[in-house]
Design goal:
The chain is about 50% helix and about 10% strand. By secondary structure, it is mainly alpha-helical. This is Transcriptional regulator.
């Protein structure tokens, strides 16, 4: 399930799916302020929350590929 979700990757994945912080925080069951602080790099979220967020983004079609994309994320296209 690599890579570990970083603040930058979280922001980029959320933007790629056109979701605001409130929508993502609701799904992750965390306060919007906590997600905002994480994305700003001011705090760290528990590993279990990061894993849940990453799975959520991946189910939405996000592929975490820092080696293939300047943003670190790509949107998987259906064949």
């Amino acid at each position: 399930m690599e890579p570990v979700l970083t603040p930058l990757l979280c922001r980029e994945a959320r933007a790629l799916l056109d979701l605001d912080t409130a929508e993502v925080a609701f799904v992750a069951r965390i306060p919007v302020m906590d997600l905002g602080m994480f994305e700003a790099g001011h705090t760290m979220l528990p590993a279990i929350t990061l894993a849940a967020l990453q799975r959520f983004f991946e189910r939405g079609g996000v592929v975490f590929a820092p080696e293939k994309s300047r943003r670190g994320v790509l949107l998987q296209t259906s064949a």
